[in-house]
Recover the amino acids of this structure.
């Protein structure tokens, strides 16, 4: 009885302290332990908060850091007929590399993304990045003799293969505006790039898989032509 009277007087003095009743026990979301008012802590949520927004991650550096030195390496060339990463998936338009594979630094990728955002300032859109700078580049200082190891860490980079999509964009925008934004970004990035739309044919190597070609035909081994056919293609200096 004394405990109930004390708790009732405490609730009258501090109405912000939550309490439980038979009717509110099923709908309460705050759980606090009994303590004096001067030691009352901030209420803690017992339910997990749900959010449909994906967590932010840094695409310009890996989460694990650099625990071992990466080799220079080369972008993987898919010779088995794979067209992964050559088409627009999430957006409506994309920027695709078309000359040859190369290594692009994280600073260059950041400048390309900022160029697109500056051109589309005030518009409603969403920019997707299809590459990640997860390769460490290690360099030695100037006028350093040969040997003595690989060098110290310099910057992060991404290995971008030929015909790979770098950026995708989705929004209620005119196509010419998106073309101009991707053109400015391509001028800032090393290499040659092309503008692609969603639904464009994929690319295997440097060959576009269009209506006239198929993956089965491109995967077939090369046929050795007869001698008379190959000899006919050789240019002659004198007429026959």
């Amino acid at each position: 009885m004394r405990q109930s009277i004390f708790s009732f007087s405490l609730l009258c003095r501090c109405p912000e302290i939550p309490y439980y009743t038979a009717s509110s026990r099923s709908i309460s979301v705050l759980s606090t332990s009994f303590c004096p008012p001067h030691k009352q802590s901030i209420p803690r949520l017992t339910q997990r908060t749900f959010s449909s927004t994906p967590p932010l991650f840094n695409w310009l550096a890996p989460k694990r850091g650099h625990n071992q030195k990466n080799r220079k390496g080369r972008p993987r060339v898919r010779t088995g007929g794979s067209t992964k990463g050559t088409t627009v998936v999430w957006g409506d338009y994309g920027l695709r590399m078309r000359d040859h594979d190369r290594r692009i630094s994280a600073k260059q990728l950041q400048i390309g993304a900022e160029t697109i955002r500056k051109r589309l300032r005030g518009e409603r859109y969403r920019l997707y990045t299809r590459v990640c700078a997860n390769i460490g580049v290690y360099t030695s200082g100037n006028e350093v003799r040969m040997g003595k190891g690989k060098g110290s860490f310099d910057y992060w980079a991404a290995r971008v293969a030929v015909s790979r999509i770098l950026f995708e964009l989705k929004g209620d925008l005119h196509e010419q505006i998106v073309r101009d934004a991707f053109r400015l970004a391509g001028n800032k990035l090393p290499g040659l790039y092309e503008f692609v739309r969603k639904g464009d044919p994929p690319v295997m190597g440097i060959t576009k898989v269009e209506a006239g070609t198929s993956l089965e035909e491109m995967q077939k081994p090369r046929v050795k032509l007869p001698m008379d056919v190959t000899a006919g293609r050789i240019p002659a200096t004198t007429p026959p």
